[in-house]
Amino acid sequence: MTPKHEKQEFVTVLVRDPRIQKEDSWHSYIDYEIFIHTNSICFTRKTSCVRRRYREFVWLRQRLQSNAVLIQLPELPSKTPFFNMNNPNHVDHRRQGLQEFLEKILQDALVLSNSRLHLFLQTQLSPEDMEACVSGQTKYSVADAIHSFASLNRRFPIEDEERKKGKSDADSDSESSSSGLGPSDDSISCGCKASPASEES
């Protein structure tokens, strides 16, 4: 087989669907859907979808930078005191900046080898839980966490077909997770657009 017949690796990332989430009666924040589609061997799942907020991106960048001191990571869109979550232009400008950040870091082999990045993109674990998983303080591995999240949040046509074939198995698995990795009700309800469980809040 000649090189031109070999499959080119790709990683498509989309940051989309900003939604206002209520933290409590006084505080709200915006989270964004992160959709990944890839054929890269670096990824445990070839298609995934999670929701993340700005401060989680800040955490990710800090952790990646501390582990890759020889490279300068791209900047996130700046946090401004004038940001207004009810202003569509402000929200879309931040969304575009977050997408550009992910597009750039996903081109770097050193960054792609960082387990935190994969947990960030393919699970709904909190930063604290991601740190615990990466440092071996959990009963589950990084791959376990990603597979568990995917099995509880099947949202894509191919996976839906697989679920129909083995519906009885999927149903028994979806009620509980022995590893404690099941997302909270909030993370399910603010899932991806294609999810039947997704509802407007």
Can you offer a commentary on this structure?
The protein contains 9 helices and 3 strands. It has helices spanning 54-67, 88-105, 109-112, 115-122, 127-134, 142-152, 157-165, 167-174, 185-189, and strands at 11-22, 28-38, 47-53. The chain has a 3-stranded antiparallel sheet. A hairpin with an 8-residue loop joins strand 2 and strand 3. Helix 4 crosses helix 5 (127-134) and helix 4 runs parallel beside helix 6. The relative contact order is 0.14.
Low-confidence stretches: 155-164, 166-201
What is the gyration radius calculated from CA atoms? 18 Å
Question: What is the terminal separation in angstroms?
Answer: 52 Å
Oligomerization state of this entry?
A: single chain
Query: Shape from CA axes?
Result: globular
Class per helix and strand makeup: alpha+beta
Number of helices in the DSSP assignment: 9
Number of strands: 3
Strand content: 5-15%
Average residue pLDDT: 80
Helix content: 40-55%
Order of helices and strands: EEEHHHHHHHHH
Query: Mind summarizing the main beta sheet?
Result: 3 strands, antiparallel
Strand order of the largest sheet: 1-2-3
